[in-house]
């Protein structure tokens, strides 16, 4: 049981260090480095449920959404790697 607790603690410390390093890499500007922020074109749509059990889809105009070039979300922005894979966000109504 003691070994399991130590492994969990070590994994938690490693995750915290990776998150802190990711945040510092974003906040500390390094010359000639990648940009901290990016933009991705997304096309959200409304998914309106009907009484019959079917749903209508209403696509909105494409929008530019700001994202952050990091592993984790920071400062209220989604990571660019995630946003590039999810370019059609669903808005359930």
Structure description:
There is one protein chain. The chain has one domain (2-92). It is 34% helix and 29% strand. With 93 residues, it is of the alpha/beta class. The termini are far apart. The chain has two helices and six strands. A hairpin with a 5-residue loop joins strand 2 (45-49) and strand 3. The strands form two sheets. It has a three-stranded mixed sheet.
Helices and strands, with pairings:
Elements: H1 2-27, E1 37-42, E2 45-49, E3 55-59, E4 63-68, E5 78-79, H2 80-85, E6 90-92
Parallel strand pairs: 2-6, 4-5
Antiparallel strand pairs: 1-4, 2-3
Radius of gyration: 19 Å
Strand content: 25-35%
Cα end-to-end separation: 47 Å
Helix percentage: 25-40%
Q: Specify the structural class.
A: alpha/beta
Q: Helical element count?
A: 2
**Stretches with pLDDT under 50, minimum 5 residues:** none
What's a quick, concise take on this entry?
34% of the residues lie in helices and 29% in strands.
